[in-house]
Design brief:
This protein has 5 helices and no strands. It has 154 residues and is mainly α. The chain has one domain. Helix 1 runs antiparallel to helix 5, helix 3 runs antiparallel to helix 4 and helix 4 packs antiparallel against helix 5. It comes from Chryseobacterium paridis.
Length: 154
């Protein structure tokens, strides 16, 4: 039996990656379309829940699953350590980037009133560019996890 938890780890990691890409391709362009009105529309839409709520819950759970995956596969599949540990670190780095970089910018874009137009535009541009960096971290983590899965079959 192949390690089911590694499949789950890959599926959830891929989901996080695609939600992040969706944010870059759909949400961010809409937020920056006509600042400040577009940010006000986003604020109104995010009154109940925000993408940050999703990432806080799923991201935290995902790290727990990653740690469990590493522990469970440590002795049975030593050949995956060199892939799973870097993948786990990349996902942690993506979350550190989220907390230290994106959450403060989210507060500027969606919490600050009144909106300083130039500052909001600059913040939105920074957010949009760096989200692709976060996507690259997630993609690399998913690829390393897939390689680890492949190694379990050897």
């Amino acid at each position: 039996m192949r390690p089911l938890i590694l499949f789950i780890y890959i599926i959830i990691g891929s989901g996080l990656l695609f939600v992040n890409i969706y944010n870059s391709l759909v949400d961010a362009p809409n937020w920056g379309r006509n600042i400040p009105e577009s940010l006000e529309n986003a604020r109104n839409y995010f009154q109940q829940k925000t993408p940050g709520d999703f990432f806080k819950i799923v991201g935290t759970s995902y790290h727990l699953i990653g740690l469990i995956t590493i522990i469970l596969l440590w002795n049975s599949y030593p050949q995956v350590r060199g892939y799973m540990i870097p993948a786990f670190v990349l996902f942690i780095l993506a979350d550190v980037l989220t907390i230290t970089y994106f959450f403060p910018r989210n507060d500027i874009l969606f919490g600050q009133k009144p909106i300083d137009l130039n500052f909001a535009i600059q913040t939105w541009k920074e957010w949009s560019r760096m989200n692709w960096v976060r996507s690259l971290l997630l993609l690399t983590g998913v690829i390393l996890s897939c390689i680890a899965l492949h190694k379990t079959y050897n």
